[in-house]
Amino acid sequence: MGAVLLAAVTGTLPAPSAHAAPPGPVIRADTDRDGLVTPDDDAGKTAWTRERGALMLPDIDDDRRRCPIVGPAGARLPDDRLADCGDASDTVVDGAADLADLAPVRITAAPVAAGTTATVAADPASREYVRIFARRHGRMVPLGPGDRLTAGELRHGVRLGVEATDFVRDPAKWAGFTDLVLRVDRDGVTTEDRVRLRVAPLVFQHDLMPIRRMMTADHTTGPAELERGKPYDPAARPRPVQPGEAEFRRDLRRGLDRAGLPAPLFNYPTGGDVWMQDLFKTAYASIPAPGGREHRISVIVRSADVMPGTATPDFPLRDASRSAFTLLRGPGTGVIQQYDPGRVGSDDNLYYGSFSSTGNFGTLPPYTWRGHHYPVGRIVHGGTGGKESPDVSFTRMLAAQGYQRPLAVDTSWLGVGHIDEFLSFVPARNDRGWVAVVADPGLGRRLLEELVAQGRGDEPLVHGIAPGDTEDPGLTVAGALDKPSLTRGTEIARKGIDAALRTLKEQAGLTDRYVVRVPALFREIDLPAGYPRRDLVANYLPAAANGVSTGTGVYLAPRQHAPRTGGRDVFERAAERALSGTGTRISWVEDWAYAHHVGTVGGEVHCATNALRALSGTRPWWTERD
Hints:
The chain contains 14 helices and 31 strands. By secondary structure, it is an alpha+beta fold. The chain has 2 domains: 7-59 and 102-199, Sandwich (Immunoglobulin-like), CATH 2.60.40.1700; 203-621, L-arginine/glycine Amidinotransferase, Chain A, CATH 3.75.10. The chain has a 5-stranded antiparallel β-sheet. A 4-stranded mixed β-sheet has the order 2-9-8-4, with no helix packed on it. A 4-stranded mixed β-sheet has the order 10-13-14-15. Strand 14 (293-302), helix 7 (323-328) and strand 15 form a beta-alpha-beta unit. The radius of gyration is 28 Å and the shape is elongated. It starts with 6 loop residues before the first helix and ends in a 13-residue tail after the last strand.
């Protein structure tokens, strides 16, 4: 029966032999990651490497929709209370779907003597993060550290299911590993066997995945109404109430149709918050399943945006993001949040809090470079490492996943500070399969200079918009070239974008071969005296780089409203020409009144939408090799 425990003498449990599994019952998990539990899993089962080792899901979805969304007497639940519920927050296996979320573990059948018993438990350091179920009398029941398996069960073998109760948040508290320890007791002699598992990481979706549902804000309904039980159909066509909303939705629908994506626009109740991209990121977690498949759960990662002026300890985060719990959490989908409570009440939130918005996070699509293989891509976000950076506990959680190794680029020169204001990704016909779409303020200025050289300097800079709805009514093309805020804005943006591209080149090999430059026009923002940030810019014309890849070869970009030549917008024509060799086509979306209008600091299509993407074509994250 393996090593004999002399607990009274040593007080410890010796490690099992590395040369052979102990006789009698042994514990197995899917160490070789083929989705099955077989004798082939025995080799190396007590260790965990990137190449080999068993995996478990963080069981945070809500398969039976049992999580409460409202408190006693209709009171709103605090943010943390909403987030603390999921299938792993109880000791019940909620049906077949929840059973599928459990990692399969087996105790093999063995001819043990009468009176033999056994226990199986997670090691003490991981015990609060792991739950073990055993099949008894046809159903899965929780198995506590002291619960005994009988000789009869050991003779027939025992089917176990294991779930993690959470992702890794802080490696100093839990690094994501657990050792399941089987102890068999017979006639006063105890033997031990064990297997190691790791929790699956949180994986951000990337823009090569086809859109399954595109989400836009429903301004007529707020999160509190959903929490009080208001009936709601997210596929219904809401009544447009914001200027330009009808046109915005119309062009999104046309673009999705052009992309071959018939799914309806998905309405998300925000109560008036237009900036859908800043509310959450869409992600997933997966483990191996039989036949080389992945078993996945979707994850909505709530923004760590602690709101200035309104945040309280009970309600610290952006209110519109709460609708994720009532509308999106359910079978196969969980919602998580991670933020530093110490930020509540800090004046820094007013000046630097927007860096934590999820519009400041993107994903480099999959690539291989210098021997590093990223099958699910890499997270990229804006941040300097100082105050002009996202919530530290949020980025620590992302880094702790161990995959999609996050990299930061400096976005401190942007008024809002979001990376999507100058960078996005689309499919392309090259060895990586994608390119970065990057704003080029130098190109935008050259296009205006060409118009002046053609004798068209007296034409309006903004085409197709009433002068009163522009930043500078009556501004001409020539006037734009002479306007100090645009000249200075071009220089600030050029330096900032060049620095970001240098970082991406050095850390991800993003050379000019993988960059498509589209025209842009930036203005320097007029800041009040005493404002702690200086030399900030925003897009003056709608930013073509602030668009959405459908994942099927169509890119949804904001109409440019630049001067026209031969009946064509010169900025739009330049952007189409830049993307012409990639295989991606642009579908233009009217967003001036809805998202870009005066006073927004230049929000666009990406800022005002979010997307649930299809996971059917993902590549297993565990195939990463260094």
